[in-house]
């Protein structure tokens, strides 16, 4: 597989005159907030203005060759298997920056959430301060429809530009042709977003840009709100250990937050290898320093099984498990 991937990467770099950081058998523990994960066959980070044409070519060639591609943002909310990932990890971290178009603020998808918050505050625009201190990128936040402190990213989202596998051209999901991946603009439809759900989760796509409709406000007020939210995250222990924040989604039908439900089962502090339910917050799983990806998965499975047996509630993981699993 690596020889096939190497040929694809070299062809795409040459054709698009693209500077790219290409690594083979790259350990993924350095690219996720959990700090776990085995080697990816190939890790690619395109770095210049030909990012878009490079990604379209890469996705098309990989698709035609049957090579899996995973789009990586900030590495938050994912656990890569200890065995690694067979295929290409396409990292968007160098695709960052912003512009103002038609009075709207447009971010490239690889822009970090913290950087986006600082930019909006500098422009006296409010609406992003809710997300201050949250790990990840704009692309990941839009894909997840990130939510915190009662606000979700779709509340301020206007449109998104993506690279998408345009299967709709044939009306057949199994249809395969060369050059399936195209650029497309998506205008937000409120009905397609829900609690930590977005339409992009059902698409084979890469988010390029996201445009936000933000209101003018006082810079000091915005910055004070940002500081308050970052302090709250610190007090909850989000930065004490490698983690992904909340391990499970909340479900309002359960009548209480997931952290409270897990705490009431007596699981807080439970360990599996180097993974532990945080003693300070039952809905945060931490890497105490020696955790394997398998430890995290075993712990999450035990949490789900225990909660289901004791309460009947079925918890929904917020983290994604990617790569080779038994």
Q: Which features would summarize this protein structure in a list?
A:
single chain; 326 residues; alpha+beta; Uridine Diphospho-n-acetylenolpyruvylglucosamine Reductase, domain 2; Uridine Diphospho-n-acetylenolpyruvylglucosamine Reductase, domain 3; Uridine Diphospho-n-acetylenolpyruvylglucosamine Reductase, domain 1; 3 domains; five-stranded antiparallel beta sheet; four-stranded mixed beta sheet; 28% helix
Please tell me about this protein's structure.
This protein has 326 residues and is of the alpha+beta class. The protein folds into three domains: 2-91, 2-Layer Sandwich (Uridine Diphospho-n-acetylenolpyruvylglucosamine Reductase, domain 2), CATH 3.30.43.10; 98-220, 2-Layer Sandwich (Uridine Diphospho-n-acetylenolpyruvylglucosamine Reductase, domain 3); 237-322, Uridine Diphospho-n-acetylenolpyruvylglucosamine Reductase, domain 1 (Alpha-Beta Complex), CATH 3.90.78.10. The protein contains seven helices and 19 strands. The strands form six sheets. A five-stranded antiparallel sheet has the order 6-7-13-11-12. A hairpin with a 6-residue loop joins strand 17 (275-277) and strand 18. Helix 1 packs antiparallel against helix 2 (51-65) and helix 3 (113-122) runs antiparallel to helix 5 (219-235). The longest helix is centred in the C-terminal third of the chain and has 19 residues, at 293-311. The relative contact order is 0.14. The model has no long low-confidence stretch (mean pLDDT 93).
